[in-house]
Recover the amino acids of this structure.
């Protein structure tokens, strides 16, 4: 496809002479000279030998995986050279070895990761090779899911504009990955706001074994993105350094001037199998593999160097040898460096400490104040924190302007803090969380809203594989603290898709804090704390309580911060402990009040991660009996985890089975008799308490 289509975009006259040839003279506009071209050639060779060396290390059992960039070097180096490392930002993909080298990573840096050494700058040996990262260079430590990087890059670019800088953000992938929905979300957001993002799509015709025909409408990413107004598009021969460099300079220049994002569709060749685990002879035609070899970007570069008399064959051979030696000695050095120590495997799952400490916490006396409803308490917390932290921003669907959120949690915030800090997102949950990642990485504190828990799932990949893992995978070099506020829960005739309880999915994710307040005062204190902590937080708001009198409370003032991991004993008792949270706190208190002869202790967990195990165990050791109550379905619910912990820690103290009350195992139905039957109610709790009391 390449040859004739490339001519659609590349302005040949700029870099070719009248005979259609590239010469040093015809390339004058690119500000290159002989020595500079030699440097580029050396970087290409280094990258190529790194591929070769990695496969040798693999065979020697010194590394366990490799994914090579052979055939992609020219396009990658071209874009990296057009950028400013350490000033601009980069979200490279796993095949971007040559990009990383040109951007400033050294063979030593990269081989430390290949050989899983603790000094690796990207992950300290935590990630498989091919996940580039370097804080000083502003290469954000990368992950493995294809395509999660696009929205993050858009978020970082959005932050660059908000910060008033002219930084540019690079993001890359293969052509196959553009089938992921997040690609289109990212292109849409970047194009809509003319953000400074360079999307380098390296098209090597295959996504592992899947061809372009099976992947992309019209078999061309360049064609596919035609409709995005504001997006600059280029189709380039990515095996030709000079063609690629010309386009890269133009695209980066436009981004820097605020003239919008660019998609560079680079037609490249994959000279190696997909990875060290793949054998492409199984699915590729040998003739095609041979044809691709003829387009090797290094051969093209060598031809140019010879033709222009910059190097002769002997000099080139010497440079090849030097590149090999450089890589070999870097590998020897990396091998001599220490491995991570086993006991550090849990390091950097969370921030090293809580910002809001339990020690010294004093419960404020707000008893004289006027009760506020839960949704207003949240609104006040957001306003106070926006005031407190100039880097905090609030966004989500319908949150801004006169609407102020479908539940009015963000009412009036745009008026007070401006559209720059409180704004609407497109209707795209992955976009909300993905951009928040990119904003957070550069120092913003995004406090985003997911309108309904039932619709958080498009963002699940970002939450589970990205937001919660960044600190760990980068060995503490990067983090993305943010707050994800989510309206959850039933009892509102909301049916299957406006009633879900979602906490158990998120308590299963290391690296993520999970908060679930039961009343307005706690909601305010916990949300303010969430905004100050350095870990990502899922903040669950029960929409059935937003305006209920029973969840209203006099709200403490603006200095009130409720530390994580402090359960509240809502009612003291001697016979049975109930461990609960959210809406069920109220149902439990009400049920317990109907039992004259049984003394019930009610614990409101307030945060599910961290979990205040001590308060639970102290109570169970006193009462000897325990009931766990939650609104979520029982099987696989969070109650199972609490039950397991209790039976482990308090086995000797138990005088009965650890019981659970929760919803029946089905979706939440709409019609009131069905909803009432399915969700747990006061009678269920009462019956369980009586049963346990009699045990
Ligand atoms: C979300 C996700 N799905 C599947 C994979 C497995 N996987 C890794 S690379 C890849 C193919 C990607 O092809 P392409 O985007 O064309 O990039 P290339 O490897 O060809 O450079 C697949 C399916 C993954 N890492 N992440
Ligand atoms: Mg591909």
């Amino acid at each position: 496809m390449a040859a004739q289509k490339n001519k659609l975009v590349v302005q040949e006259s700029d870099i070719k002479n009248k005979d259609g040839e590239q010469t040093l003279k015809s390339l004058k506009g690119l500000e290159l000279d002989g020595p500079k071209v030699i440097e580029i050639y050396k970087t290409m060779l280094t990258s190529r030998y790194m591929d070769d060396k990695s496969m040798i290390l693999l065979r020697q059992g010194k590394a366990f995986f490799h994914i090579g960039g052979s055939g992609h070097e020219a396009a990658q180096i071209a874009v990296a050279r057009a950028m400013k490392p350490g000033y601009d930002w980069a979200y490279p993909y796993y095949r971007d070895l040559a990009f990383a080298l040109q951007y400033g990573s050294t063979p030593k840096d990269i081989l430390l990761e290949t050989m899983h050494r603790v000094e690796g700058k990207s992950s300290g040996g935590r990630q498989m090779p091919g996940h580039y990262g370097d804080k000083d260079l502003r290469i954000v430590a990368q992950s493995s899911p294809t395509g999660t990087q696009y929205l993050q890059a858009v978020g970082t670019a959005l932050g660059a504009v908000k910060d008033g800088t002219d930084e540019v953000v690079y993001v890359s992938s293969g052509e196959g990955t553009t089938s992921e929905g997040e690609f289109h979300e990212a292109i849409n957001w970047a194009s809509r706001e003319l953000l400074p993002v360079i999307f380098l799509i390296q098209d090597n015709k295959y996504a592992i074994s899947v061809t372009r025909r099976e992947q992309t409408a019209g078999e061309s990413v360049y064609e596919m993105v035609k409709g995005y107004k504001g997006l600059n598009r280029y189709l380039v021969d990515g095996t030709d350094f000079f063609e690629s460099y010309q386009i890269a300079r133009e695209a980066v220049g436009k981004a820097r001037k605020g003239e919008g994002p660019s998609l560079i569709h680079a037609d490249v060749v994959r000279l190696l199998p997909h990875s060290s685990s793949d054998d492409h002879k199984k699915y590729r035609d040998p003739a095609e593999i041979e044809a691709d070899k003829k387009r090797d970007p290094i051969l093209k570069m060598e031809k140019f160097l010879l033709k222009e008399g910059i190097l002769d064959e002997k000099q080139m051979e010497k440079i090849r040898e030097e590149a090999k030696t450089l890589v070999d000695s870097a590998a020897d050095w990396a091998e001599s460096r220490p491995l991570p120590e086993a006991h550090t495997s849990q390091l950097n799952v969370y921030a090293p400490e809580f910002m809001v400490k339990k020690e010294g916490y004093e419960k404020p006396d707000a008893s004289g104040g006027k009760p506020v409803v839960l949704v207003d308490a949240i609104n006040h917390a957001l306003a106070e924190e926006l005031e407190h932290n100039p880097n905090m921003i609030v966004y989500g669907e319908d949150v801004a302007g006169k609407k102020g959120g479908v539940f009015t949690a963000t009412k009036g915030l745009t008026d007070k803090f401006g559209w720059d800090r409180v704004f609407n997102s497109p209707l795209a949950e992955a976009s909300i969380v993905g951009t928040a990642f990119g904003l957070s990485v550069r120092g913003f504190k995004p406090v985003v809203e997911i309108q309904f828990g039932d619709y958080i799932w498009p963002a699940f990949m970002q939450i589970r594989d990205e937001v919660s893992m960044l600190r760990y995978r980068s060995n503490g070099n990067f983090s993305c603290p943010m707050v994800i506020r989510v309206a959850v829960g039933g009892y509102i005739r909301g049916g299957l898709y406006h009633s879900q309880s979602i906490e158990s999915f998120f308590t299963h994710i290391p690296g993520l804090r999970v908060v679930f307040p039961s009343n307005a005062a706690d909601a305010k204190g916990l949300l303010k704390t969430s905004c100050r902590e350095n870990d990502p937080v899922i903040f669950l708001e029960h929409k059935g309580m937003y305006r209920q009198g029973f969840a209203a409370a006099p709200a403490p003032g603006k200095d009130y911060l409720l530390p994580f991991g402090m359960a509240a004993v809502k009612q003291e008792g001697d016979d049975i402990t109930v461990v609960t949270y959210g809406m069920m706190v109220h149902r439990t208190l009400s049920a317990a009040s109907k039992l004259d002869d049984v003394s019930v202790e009610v614990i409101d967990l307030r945060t599910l991660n961290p979990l205040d195990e001590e308060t639970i165990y102290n109570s169970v050791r006193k009462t000897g009996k325990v009931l766990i109550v939650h609104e979520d379905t029982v099987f696989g619910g969070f109650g199972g985890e609490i039950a397991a912990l209790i039976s482990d820690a308090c086995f000797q103290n138990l005088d009965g089975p650890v019981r659970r009350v929760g919803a029946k195992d089905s979706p939440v139905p709409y019609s009131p008799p069905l909803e009432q039957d399915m969700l747990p109610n006061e009678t269920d709790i009462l019956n369980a308490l009586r049963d346990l009391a009699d045990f």
In short: Residues 174-176, 204, 206-207 surround magnesium ion (ligand 2) (CB under 6 Å). DSSP finds 25 helices and 21 strands in the chain.
